[in-house]
Structures are given as C-alpha cells and as structure tokens.
Design brief:
16% of the residues lie in helices and 40% in strands. It is an alpha+beta fold. It has one domain: Electron Transport, Fmn-binding Protein, Chain A (Pnp Oxidase, Chain A), CATH 2.30.110.10.
Length: 154
C-alpha cells in the first residue's frame, strides 16, 4: 500500500506539537542570526543532555547549522504566532528581538546547543545537539495543531 503525501500530512497534523524557532550563526560569515520555524524537536537524552531537530534539506538553515556546528532552540510561548510565521517565511510586520547568540526575546525556553551528530533522514537532516546552556521563562507554550496555532487551557 502506498501512502499519499496528502494523507501522511493530514495524519501528522493530528499530532499537536510545540513550536520552536531554531537559530544559528556561522562565526563571522553572517552578521546576524538566521532562523527557521521547526516543530520536529524532541529530547534524546538527559545524561548527557541531548536534543534532536529535523531540518529540510532544501532549507537555507541546513548549511548554516553545518557551518556553525551550533544552533539555538527557542521554544515559543503563547502569543508568539508572528515570530513563528516570520521564521516560516510568511510576511509579518516589525523586527523580532533576537540576541547575537540567537535567543528570541520572550521565548518560553532557550537551549544553546553544539552539533553532536548529523544523520540523513529522507528529505530532512536530523541534528542531535548537546545542550550547553538553558534559560527557562514563565508562560504557556505555543501549540500547532491541524494547521492552526493554539494555546493550552487548564
């Protein structure tokens, strides 16, 4: 049986996910961080602290992460829809407050990572990152489910 791309996408859209923006900067090559919205993010190990992100092979961010051998995962908070849209390539107004190391102001959590391993996975590349620094802020996560941003309710 062959799975159609439309059915696969619809099935995966049934899984709610948090929304992250992964940023990176290749040492002196680029003057500011580059980012991409990523929902494929998961913890891998507590000891050592490892996470995994999945980046499309056609994404500009792929080459920059390879070059920098580092990336920052910003877990977005409720209300940061415009930030997610901006890094997903959708038009938004105004700049996104972001530090030189790629931390997005107002993010629920920020994880600074070094690339530990890179693995091919179909039309994506998986990066396992060793978490070197963590910042956690108060708030509720931005959630994406069935093509829309959502918030959590108690």
């Amino acid at each position: 049986m062959t799975v159609s791309a439309a059915d696969f996408r619809r099935a995966l859209g049934s899984w709610p996910s948090g929304v992250t923006v992964v940023t990176t900067r290749a040492d002196q090559t680029y003057s500011s961080p580059h980012g991409i919205t990523v929902s494929a993010f998961v913890s891998v190990s507590m000891d050592p602290p490892l996470i995994l992100i999945s980046i499309g092979n056609a994404a500009t961010a792929l080459g920059r992460i390879r070059e920098a051998a580092a990336f920052t995962v910003n877990i977005l908070t409720q209300g940061q829809d415009a930030v997610s849209n901006r890094f997903a390539g959708r038009p938004t107004e105004g700049p996104v407050p972001i530090t030189a190391d790629g931390a997005i102001e107002g993010a629920l959590a920020v994880l600074q990572c070094r690339v530990e391993q890179e693995v091919g996975g179909g039309d994506h590349t998986l990066f396992i990152g060793r978490v070197e620094e963590v910042v956690v802020n108060d708030g509720a996560p931005l959630v994406y489910w069935r093509g829309k941003y959502r918030g959590l309710t108690e």
